[in-house]
Amino acid sequence: MYKKIITICILVFWGIGVNAKDFPICKDYYSINEGEKEQKEKFLEKVLKSDPQNVECMLKLASVYLRTGKVSQGFDLITAAYKLKPKFVKNAKISKILDLALRMSSLRQRANETKDYKVWNELANTYFDIGIFKEAAIAYEKSLELNPNQSYKKILLAICYGNLNQYDKASKVLKEVLKEQNNNFYANYYYAKLLKNEFDDRRWVEYMKTARKLIDTKLARFNNEQEREYIKEDIESELQD
Description:
Number of strands: 0
Distance between the termini: 16 Å
Structural class: mainly alpha
CATH topology of the largest domain: Serine Threonine Protein Phosphatase 5, Tetratricopeptide repeat
């Protein structure tokens, strides 16, 4: 429901696998059927446990991690492999996301070291913008642990939960924001969408009408006028149904 509101560029990892010829050391890996991702993951992890600098298998495991939603682990492996054999990694197909992997791993390391909520927000915002909502949610949670007084980040966390089908969590966060700021435009708008689309709760009308009242005030801030008009049209469309 939220993807209709926010324009995102989603990374598609299916096109960044690694050619068989890139992995002469991981020959046994190719005897595993394509659909058996868990078996592949365990096999590669076992290889790396005994041979932790096997760059070929590091990249292959990174590809498996990315395909199964373990994005941070995948990025960390790509980064570690690059430090060992930069030329090899640059020539692999997975190099298409090398710059992103290096940046995200560096950000996460800096966030863990500094305990700075702003760094966690930078990490979360980047994951959010490319549609990796699981990792974005984890980073927003870390940021809010360090600084709970961030209503807009709470709303972004709720949107992450919504995209992960964790609607009860999304509802809890939005209600928390509304308790603190009952005239928060985004909290009213997204809570109305959540109540209508996921809980079939008629109270959504009340919150959507509040959002309509707030949209032309200073309490509703948008990136540009086009975004304001889009959401305004959506509100009117919802209330006319």
